Amino acid sequence: MTNDLEKAFGTYALNKHHSQLLHWAQSVPLSWLGRRAALILRKAVLRRRQPIIDATVDGLKLRLYMQDNVSERKFLFMPQFFDPYERGLLKRSLTEGSIFVDVGANAGIYSLTAAPLVGETGRVLAIEPNPVVLERLKFNAALNGMDKRVIGAQYGVSDTEGSFDLTLDDSNLGGSSLVAERSSRKINVACFKLLSLIQKHQLQKIDALKIDIEGAEDKALVPFLAEAPRSLYPKILILENSPQDWKQDLPAALAKAGYSHQKTTRMNQVWTL
Q1: How far apart are CA 129 and CA 110, in angstroms?
Q2: Global confidence as pTM
Q3: Which of 64, 77, 147, 240 could in theory staple to 42 by disulfide, Cβ–Cβ 3.0 to 4.6 A?
């Protein structure tokens, strides 16, 4: 754990003026004009160049990093614009005892959205190969008293098992990838098939699964659909919309498995059984 994550929540709180600007940004309506206003307010706060901010977002106490992760920055200032359809679907669908799997969890926006919903008897499996952002996720889960229901798993997911290089994107840690060459900086990570990880954590069902692994969604899901029992098929599937990167026909595999396409949003495809 880094020194930043050893400090008490509130250490990196904004001053009163910037806290008000943040509140206004988080309160703008879900519209084009609202988005523009939120971006202006965000710019005004970030002009102070505070790299870490402690704040409450969407009912969660969070420590978020402004300089190296787009999703943390966006969620802090504009939670209402962060995948509203997808996160709204989870809020309507997950209940006490539900199981949520987050593949490519990043700093955990989806995992932390799901954790209050699944309750004490539910579980969130957050699979993320980058140790830096996984530690942030675990810190924020603990900060909200949800560390026992959020399981952090530092692995990559692919169609074969072994050790592979994860290419890091230092300007956006959420863009780190097993398949895209975005920089020369790499770390070696252990990779498993999705079914192996589900079995390793003894999950008996999956109520919803989100997968965002930078264009490798087909490499994770096609083998899973071929090998997993139907009892483990997620009822709701949210996947990054990256057909230009897929080497296999993932939509065809999903349809063959019985899934129905519900919606394609700005970032994702949503499928349900």
Answers
A1: 16
A2: 0.93
A3: 77
Residue with tokens 């019985």: 258
Q: How many domains does the chain have?
A: 2
Q: Which of 59, 80, 101 is the last residue of a domain?
A: 80
CA triplet 104, 61, 201: central angle to 5 degrees? 35
User: 3-class DSSP state for residue 114?
Assistant: helix
Query: Which strand (E) or helix (H) includes residue 166?
Result: strand 162-167
Tokens 């969660």: give the residue: 60
Taking only the tens place, the pLDDT of each residue in 218-271 is 999 999 999 999 999 999 999 999 999 999 999 999 999 999 999 999 999 999
Looking at the DSSP assignment, which residues form a beta bridge with residue 53?
A: 64
Helix, strand or coil, per DSSP, at residue 190: strand
C-alpha 94/C-alpha 96 separation (Å) is: 7
Give dist(CA 141, CA 156) in Å, integer: 21
Q: Please name the amino acid found at residue 200.
A: K
Residue 138 contacts residue 162 (beta carbons within 8 Å): no
- Residue 218 identity: D
Q: Which two tokens stand for residue 14?
A: 């904004």
